[in-house]
Amino acid sequence: MSTPTDGLTALLQAARDGDPAATAAAWPLIYPELRRIARARLRGPGAPSLATEELLHEGFLRLAAAPSAPLADRHHFYALAAKAMRHIVIDHLRRRHAQARGGDWQALSWDTAVVDLAAPAREERLLALDGALQALDALEPALAQLVELRFFGGYTEAETADALGTSERTVRRQWAKARAFLLVQLDD
């Protein structure tokens, strides 16, 4: 995230307003950070079977197709990108669960079924997390945004504080509050 804020924000806004030249100019500047966000979302337990590039490009296309609203700064853009990628991952998992529950039914041998037992449990936890995050967003949108940046965007405490315009201490305190809320929601 070392690009200058003023020029990049203007380029991103022009790209969102439909300027193809601005899109072409902004793409090389935003690509490394979007790739980092996509990679962060796809690693770890419960990671969906999406390729980093697939998630990155689909997220960018969704952002480009979304109604254009003014961007505050590049952090606002990256927060929107992390949110779009989160929705793509959740949509992907929902489609896989729909197929697992009868869509495109295929007979499995016992060996194949045993190998695949752990993956659905992780995916169900990720879908439950999305539901809990939606509940948090309805109650305290700022905390939901923090979770999206930290968990789905892969931001550090310092990057999150910078993106939200607050201190790292506040980020730590709000992160603890958000995690507690999500844990209670997930226990239900």
From TrEMBL:
Lineage: superkingdom: Bacteria
User: Among its keywords, does the record have Electron transport?
Assistant: no
User: What SUPFAM superfamilies does UniProt report for this protein, alphabetically?
Assistant: Sigma2 domain of RNA polymerase sigma factors (SSF88946), Sigma3 and sigma4 domains of RNA polymerase sigma factors (SSF88659)
Q: Where is the RNA polymerase sigma-70 ECF-like HTH domain?
A: 8-187
Query: What keywords are annotated for this sequence in UniProt?
Result: Sigma factor, Transcription, Transcription regulation
Q: State the similarity comment.
A: Belongs to the sigma-70 factor family. ECF subfamily.
Q: What is this protein called?
A: ECF-type sigma factor
| Organism of origin | Pelomonas dachongensis
